[in-house]
Every structure is written in C-alpha cells, then in structure tokens.
Amino acid sequence: MNILVLGSGGREHAFAWKLAQSPLCDALFVAPGNAGTAQLANNLAVAYNDFEAVATAIRQHTIDLLIVGPEEPLVKGIVNFLRRQPDLAQLRIVGPDEAGAQLEGSKDFSKGFMLRHGIPTAASRTFTVETLQEGLRYLDEHSLPVVLKADGLAAGKGVVIAETVADAQATLRDMLDGRKFGDAGNKVVVEQFLRGIELSVFVLTDGVNYKILPEAKDYKRIGEADTGPNTGGMGAVSPVVFANENFLRKVEEKVVKPTLAGLQQDGIRYQGFIFIGLMNVKGEPYVIEYNARMGDPETEVVLPRVQNDFAELMIATADGELDKVALQVSSQTAVTTVVVSNGYPDVYEKGKIITDLERLEDVTAFHAGTIAQNERVLTNGGRVLALTALANSLENAVRKSQEAARTVQFDGKQYRKDIGLDLIRYQD
User: Fold this and answer.
1) What's the CATH architecture for 123-192?
2) pTM of the prediction?
3) 95 and which of 25, 85, 209, 272 could share a cystine (Cβ 3.0–4.6 Å)?
4) DSSP readout, 359-381?
5) Dist CA 230 CA 346 (whole Å)
6) In 3D, which of 236, 260, 264 has the Cα closest to residue 389?
C-alpha cells in the first residue's frame, strides 16, 4: 500500500514514524514534510492547501491511503474536493469532510453542536460586529475572568482570557471592530471561565465505531509555571495521572458517545480523529473545544504508547471496520519536551544549524520545524523538535526527555524545564 501524509510538523513526523514500522506500508510519502520525515519517507514539494497539486501527487504516486494531518485543509474541504474526483473515488482518506471539520473550524458551530446534543461545556454567547454594543454590555455584567474566542481558525492564538471588564471589552472591540484575527474573528464566542485541570482525549472513529486513544496533557504557555503567551505547545505527557478510570468512564459516557451520536444525527459521516479538549472540574468533564485532527505535540506522546500496526488502524478507520481491531496501549509513560527558536511564539529566526542529534540515546526526536540542506539539518519554524522519551515511570520519562533537550544544540535554543513536574507533584 502507498500512503501519503499531509503536513510538515511533529505530528506528521510521528505519523510517518509509526507508519514506516508497518509491513502494510510499501511506499510512504509526506507533503511537504521536514528533515525528519525525509529520513523515513519521500518528501513531496506539495503545499497541503493546494488541493489540485495534492490530487496530482495522489495520482502520480498511486496513493491508496491519505492521512490529513493539519486542520486548515480539512476545514477548507480537501476531503470534499478529492471525493468529487471520479478517478479518486476509491481513495481511502482519514480525516473528516468540511461539515465534520466545522467542529474545529467554527467555535460557534461547535458550541451549538454541544448544546443541541447535551454535551457538558461552559455557558457562552456569540457576538458579531453588528451586536458589538450588546456584547460590551454583556461583558459589563459577566463574572471574571472571562474567555473570548475568535470563531474561526486563528493559528492557536484566537483565545484570550481577560481578567478585567476593561480588558474583555477592549479584546472584543479588537476582534470584531479591529479585525485582529481577520475573517476568523467575524464572530466571537464569549465563554464562562472554568476552573479545573485541563487534559485532552483523542478519539479515532470510522463514522460509527470508535477507539479512545491514550489521553495527554500539554503545556501551552512559553514560560515555566505556565507563564507568558500561549504557543502551539511546549511539551506533553501521557498518561495523565489525574485522569483515573472513573473520570475517563465519565468522558466516554457524557462526551464521546453523545458527540458521535450527534454527528450521526446531524448527517455528518466523520472518519478520522476527534481531539477533545477537556477541563476536569471537580471530577466532572467539560468540553473546552473540539479539534478535527490529532494535537501537536500530543501526538508525539500518544502514538509511542499505541502498540497496534498504525497502518492497519488507519485502513480500518477509512473502511468503517474499527470494530474489528482491538486497541493495544503500552502502560509506559511518554514525555515530550519541545525545543523552540528564540523569540517564539512571536518573531523568530530560521536557518540555524542543529547539531548533536546523533548523540541522543533512548529518545525519539520528532522534527517539527526543520529542513535538510547540504546534508545539514536547519531550523525552519518556531517549534523545532519534540523530544520524546518512553519509560516505566513518569520521573524517568521526564529525566530522559529533558536530558535530550539539553543535548541538542542550535543558536537561540529555548525549552521549558518543568514539563511533567506538576504531574510528579500531583502523583506524590
């Protein structure tokens, strides 16, 4: 089987790493990929949002299975586009169509979906530029802090937690009147702030059947002790010590099952991953957000714990036969530390030479923002590497991942030194 993965980050490198281990995979392609995927697969110089070019690559390389990594092509309807090509009708695709991807593509849609189908979430209201004055009055009486979310995709930067009414009102004006996030901010969801512990649960579904993959906790802020601006993710841990069997059973009954039933009731055939961002509020799960794909860097701790043939899982998803596969999960702990460029998540430099990757031992280096040039690996993004360790204890996994982050070198290297330490304290 010839397999194509769309994307260029750590998530896609993790997909390629897992697929390359499968005897079902004859030829593996990643578009556009990075320096890490180039070691496992054939990188194609194809932008994942160029649907015509993707279709041409599928034909040219006789692709049997397509796995769409990032959210943007899903929200823009790549699955619908490919399904309209008569000669690609038999192509297996893992990833939802445009209707399903609206779970991530529109915060307003996902809120409405949760309310319709009785899925626990924070109370909220949505405002547009036409209802800005009403929104300002609403914020005047809202409890603090309050969460404001741009409706559309905003590269992970469209969520603001305001501590004062003045900040909340200024943010609402910036988003709606000032068009801070462009079209993504045509609507703004104003949401109740939930106090609790955050984690993510990942569901793989073929449209009817499902498997709940290992849960994970990520670290979004740039600074230690969760300080500074939000990022795409500075590290992750799986399993999550506070997500006990009782809590995960509640997640399945109160969130996962109603979500899948709701998609079916709404006539949406969803085949792919659903990332469910959750808040554990006094032992009860509340949905913060849905994503229509796997998370990054969560994928880099989830997949190392999945012991199944990943190609077999993907085929079963595309063929509607997930019920025939038993999910096998390692009891070991996975920890990833993300090494980033100086200045990230704001302005950062690219093209820095990365050294000492060959010195890493007992750790998997998933490339996130890298490029191969003249037999050297250079930085090519804000998040550069996700260094994943698997161990029999959380403490050992943290130690090995952090050791790897100290070992690799490039000019301006930054990383958080407290990944997983809060969970060690919780465990104690």
Assistant:
1) 2-Layer Sandwich (3.30)
2) 0.95
3) 272
4) G--S-EEEESSEEEETTEEEE-S
5) 10
6) 236
Where residue 18 falls among pLDDT bands split at 50, 70, 90? very high
Contact 24, 49 (CB under 8 A): no
Q: Where are the domains of the chain?
A: 2-97, 123-192
Is-contact 222 231, C-beta < 8 A? yes
CB 250 within 8 A of CB 285: yes
User: Average model confidence (pLDDT) for the chain?
Assistant: 96
Q: Taking Cα atoms as reference points, which of 415, 407, 409 lies closest to residue 360?
A: 407
Token pair for residue 34? Answer: 């990075």
CA neighbor of 152 nearest in space, from 274, 292, 264: 292
2-97 has CATH 3.40.50.20 classification: yes
Handedness of CA 66, 67, 70, 72 (dihedral sign): positive
Residues 6+ apart with CB under 8 A from 178: none
**pLDDT tens sequence across 66-106:** 999 999 999 999 999 999 999 998 999 999 999 999 999 99
Closest CA to 408 of 19, 42, 16, 36: 36
Exposed/middle/buried for residue 45 (C-beta within 10 Å: 0-12, 13-18, 19+): exposed
Q: Are 403 and 355 in contact (CB under 8 A)?
A: no
The secondary element (H helix, E strand) that includes residue 229 is strand 227-230
Contact 298, 202 (CB under 8 A): yes
Task: Give the integer Cα–Cα distance in Å for 357 and 285.
Answer: 40
> What is the 8-class DSSP label of residue 215?
P
Give the span between the Cα atoms of 326 and 134, in whole angstroms: 51
